[in-house]
Write a structure and sequence with these properties.
Blueprint lengths: L12 H8 L3 H13 L3 E4 L2 E4 L1 H12 L2 H17 L2 E8 L2 E8 L13 E3 L4 H7 L3 H9 L13 H14 L2 E3 L7 E10 L2 E11 L5 H18 L34 H9 L1
Antiparallel strand pairs: 1-2, 3-4, 3-8, 4-5, 6-7, 7-8
Length: 269
């Protein structure tokens, strides 16, 4: 099932063989079984994720109390800004999208349940900045250049995350996609970001100061709507490595400090 990552919706048996390394005879048996239970469906000589998987995925998201608390606030945020509002959590070096609400003719390269690298997204930076373990995971992962504005140097990203930590808000000024920009703020529990909320849209329509305040207010409202959320998210499945970091108890937390390993990584690039 990991082979169906969203980049290509219909996969042939040859595609599955290339992505999984399993023998075609084994794959043929497995996909037949998965089709029988509705996890996969046949489609024009290939296979796609079945409706049963969609049903199960929807139950997982809708059963999440953070999602339930956030949904009306995301709707209000999208309506207020006229742009797209998104909710996400961090899974190691990737952002996992729990929800997105799009207002108007905006086309986003994201989907509910989809993933994007954290280093070039405002959502990822907003969450990683408050967790030393997450910072190391993000910076240790590959950071290929997406646009001319992508941060690809570990020390530069480290400095950017310090700025995010001080300001309480993160920006993507065309780092992932040239035509799209984003403002994100963390949803915090005891100083650590458990999720983040963002507004995304075309650069020409982004009112930075207005959106920044709206996103900050929405992040606080979502947390206040569900004070018991810390026991339910992030789940073990969505956040496989549960990061822990020491906090001084201040609002912004102590400054992140680069390590010798970080400098060596930056030099090697």
């Amino acid at each position: 099932m990991e082979a169906f990552n969203g980049a290509k919706q219909v996969l042939s048996l040859a595609d599955l063989n290339k992505r999984t390394g399993l023998p075609k005879s084994t794959l043929h048996r497995l996909v037949d079984q998965l089709c029988q239970v509705g996890w996969l469906e046949r489609d024009h000589g290939g296979y796609r994720v079945g409706l049963r998987m969609f049903e199960l995925g929807t139950l997982a998201v809708e059963g999440n109390r953070l999602h339930e608390a956030a949904f009306p606030h995301l709707q209000a945020l999208a309506s207020r800004t006229g742009l797209a509002a998104q909710l996400a959590i961090l899974d190691q070096a990737e952002v996992v999208y729990l929800e997105r609400i799009v207002v108007g003719p905006i086309r986003l390269p994201t989907r509910r349940g989809g993933r994007k690298p954290a280093y070039c997204t405002a959502l990822g930076k907003a969450m990683a900045a408050y967790d030393d373990g997450a910072v190391h995971a993000v910076i240790s992962a590959p950071m290929p250049r997406k646009t001319a504005k992508t941060i690809t140097e570990p020390l530069a990203l480290w400095a950017e995350l310090n700025r995010v930590r001080e300001a309480g808000v993160a920006y993507d000024r065309g780092e992932a996609y040239e035509e799209l920009v984003c403002v994100a703020a963390p949803i915090r529990s005891s100083g650590q970001a458990i999720a983040a909320v963002s507004v995304t849209g075309p650069a020409g329509r982004m009112r930075w100061s207005v959106v920044t305040e709206a996103v900050r207010g929405t992040a606080a409202a979502i947390w206040n709507a569900n004070l018991s959320v810390r026991g339910t998210v992030p789940s073990r499945r969505l956040r496989s490595a549960r990061y822990r970091s020491q906090r001084s108890g201040t609002e912004s937390g102590p400054e992140l400090r680069p390590t010798s390993k970080m400098a060596a990584s930056s030099a090697s690039r």
